[in-house]
Amino acid sequence: MEISRLRGLLPWIIALAMVVSAAGPAAAFYLPGVAPADFQKKDMLFVKVNKLSSIKTQLPYSYYSLPYCHPDTIVDSAENLGEVLRGDRIENSPYVFQMREPQMCQIVCKITPNDKEAKELKEKIEDEYRVNMILDNLPLVVPIKRLDQDSAIVYQHGFHVGVKGQYSGSKEEKYFIHNHLSFLVKYHKDTQTELARIVGFEVKPFSEWNGNKTRLSTCDPHAKRSVMNSDSPQEVEANKDIIFTYDVEFEESAIKWASRWDTYLLMTDDQIHWFSIVTL
User: Fold this and answer.
1) What Rg value do the Cα atoms of the chain yield, rounded?
2) What is the pLDDT of residue 8?
3) pLDDT tens digit string along 118-135?
4) Please, are residues 207 and 227 in contact by the beta-carbon 8 Å criterion?
5) Residues paired with residue 205 on neighbouring β-strands, in sequence order
6) What angle do CA 67, 70, 73 make, to 5 degrees?
7) Number of domains in the chain
8) Is residue 273 a part of any domain in this protein?
9) How far is C-alpha 237 from the chain's CA centre?
10) Is residue 6 part of a domain?
């Protein structure tokens, strides 16, 4: 699949190389898909998913290689040549927002992993795989406070599929999945119009077992939902239901579109690996 995509883009690759070689040192140009996008209030925002990545194994996998919620039809959603050359596998997702319209307690789907799927989830958690998403060409990040630097904020690229932990009073390690996502979309608003541009895309992942309760605990914005302090995190077990939910908030920001990539200078990762995606 990846080879056929590259063959189809070969003329564009050659053309791009010619443009780059002809450009002077100070020349600048946009690649398709990276120009600023203006959004009105309530415009639809479509979150895309990228490959799963791990600096522990260095081998990427398709997002849908795990039993995550998926749209009725999964389509390739790469928008520019750079994404293809990096080996990205960008696809659509069931996560859809409306610009500047907060949403709480959105249910994505319920899955019941079989033995094979539960095993795959546990393996990805064991190998510290992260889920990568994209909104308006901006990769998703997780804000982290560094206590050793006066609570400075750094960012992690993507969120972990889950974590290993222990129930209180037990020494047996279990695997817990992050099944609730609390998104934050930062935007810069034009002072003359109602148009706005997306300048930040953050998430805080949580693990929460909802059991058979009528009201989902993830509907409570004040609930403590991290694995470390949750009374009932969502354990990965074969034939045990997992409900995926999310909420999204919007925050106006002074950051302008041209500076929105500055966040990525504060990333925590100390390695970047360039590998073609594993064909599944």
Assistant:
1) 20
2) 52
3) 999 999 999 999 999 999
4) yes
5) 181
6) 130
7) 1
8) no
9) 24
10) no
Q: Is residue 91 part of a domain?
A: yes
Domain that residue 233 falls in? 33-266
Tokens of 177: 């999945």
Using CA atoms, how far apart are residues 18 and 14, in angstroms rounded to an integer? 6
pLDDT at 262: 86
**Token pair of 76, please?**
């390739």
Q: And the tokens for 168?
A: 């209180």
pTM: 0.80
Does 210 fall in a domain? Answer: yes
Query: What is the per-residue pLDDT across 184-240, written as a single tens digit (0 to 9) for each?
Result: 999 999 988 989 999 999 999 999 987 765 455 556 655 544 444 456 899 999 999
Residue 197 phi, psi (nearest 5): -120, 145
Burial class (CB in 10 A: 0-12, 13-18, 19+), 267: middle
